[in-house]
Design brief:
CATH superfamily of one domain: General secretion pathway protein M, EpsM
Pfam families: PilN
Distance between the termini: 132 Å
Radius of gyration: 47 Å
Keywords: Membrane, Transmembrane, Transmembrane helix
CATH topology of one domain: Gyrase A, domain 2
Mean pLDDT: 84
Shape: elongated
InterPro entries: PilN
CATH architecture of one domain: 2-Layer Sandwich
Number of strands: 4
Length: 195
């Protein structure tokens, strides 16, 4: 028996050909169609919702007591109130807001004067007063340095003041001590609403 050498890789017999798949739609095509269908459904829903809202806003009044749309309700209210009344109420509201801000920022000096009257020693007098924000600047004259030291102790003992600082100490022609005083009162002392 002769030995056959088979050197070809091509089979001599017919290997069964696989039948080709006859599918017209692949899985990707199916997913794409589902997404397009959902998109169209959502678009139709959103458009319908917009249409319903538009009908509710623009619904005219029938005059038989049924509900009106938003635009018709606003127009009826405007007609009933009158545009002049609305403008007048707006101006009044603005004036009241300005008045409230003025009252809230107003400074009441009477409690400060009452405090200075109670705490000032009879040997000390003030000649000038300036108010700058939350600080009070005073200039004055005292009989002697010991009177200033006593005045400082009285001012520091007060609960109505957060601080008191004497500066620019000097003597006038009569031998009296001249000074400048910076006071920091508590905010409620000068507030108009607190008093």
């Amino acid at each position: 028996m002769p030995i056959q050498n088979q050197s070809s890789f091509i089979p001599r017999e017919n290997v069964g050909l696989r039948p080709r798949r006859e599918s017209t739609m692949g899985i990707m095509m199916m997913i794409a169609l589902i997404i397009v269908g959902l998109s169209l459904f959502l678009f139709a829903g959103a458009y319908s919702y917009r249409y319903v809202l538009d009908l509710q806003v623009n619904k005219p009044c029938a005059g038989d007591g049924t509900a009106c749309g938003l635009k018709a309700t606003v127009e009826n209210t405007r007609r009933n109130l009158g545009i002049d009344s609305i403008n007048r109420y707006n101006r009044l509201d603005k004036k009241m807001k300005v008045a409230e801000s003025l009252i809230n920022s107003h400074t009441n000096m009477v409690p400060l004067f009452d405090l200075l009257e109670r705490l000032t020693l009879h040997t000390v007098r003030f000649t000038k007063l300036d108010l700058d924000g939350d600080k009070v600047f005073l200039e004055g004259v005292a009989v002697g340095y010991t009177d200033l030291a006593a005045q400082l102790k009285v001012l520091e003992a007060s609960n109505s003041l957060r601080g008191a600082v004497f500066s620019n100490l000097g003597l006038d022609q009569s031998g009296n001590v001249t000074f400048s005083l910076e006071l920091v009162p508590v905010p409620s002392l000068l507030a108009y609403l607190a008093n």
